[in-house]
Amino acid sequence: MVPGDFRILSFDCYGTLIDWETGIWNALQPLFRANGTNVPREQALAGFGAIEPVVEHEHPSLLYRDLLARTHAAMATHWSMTSSTELNAGFGNSIPDWPVFPDTIRALATLKTHANLVILSNVDRQSFAATNVKLGVTFDAICTAEDIGSYKPDQRNFQYLLETIQRLGFRKSELLHVAQSLFHDIAPAEGLGIHRCWINRRNDTATGSGATKAVRHMPSFDFTFPSLGELAEGFQAARP
Question: Does the predicted model carry a pTM greater than 0.90?
Answer without folding.
Answer: yes
